[in-house]
Amino acid sequence: MSHPLVEEARKAALGAYAPYSKFSVGCAIESMDGEIAVGANMENVCYRLGVCGEISALTAAQQSFGLDKIARIAVAGGHVGPDGELTGGSVVTSCGGCRQSILEAAHVSGCDIEVISANGDGTEVKSMRISELLPLGFGPANLKDADT
Q: Is 114 considered catalytic here?
């Protein structure tokens, strides 16, 4: 049995709009108080206008409880089969842009956010901290020389 937050991410992936890639990604974010916000990818025929599942979920989390309350994030992705179930054997990790957005939330919360990545089937899970996924990430401290 996979992590409960992974199951929430897998369910969120079922709500993705992915007619072009056929690759659905769901993200579930848990607050420090146990509240859950979810999101899924939303593609667009103009590919660059699509939205990743993590960005969708981070936006929902900001509205629900605030970036400063994020404790952990789970992401899962794969293909939604004819039976309506999410499938896939490869563990899905956040893209570089999403890692930067998660790092921003980590700076706001003061917490090295746990990122749980899972395959579509939910049978393989890897957990890392955002500092491991994006070492030497760009954050507010990098702007200290901007205000001179």
A: no
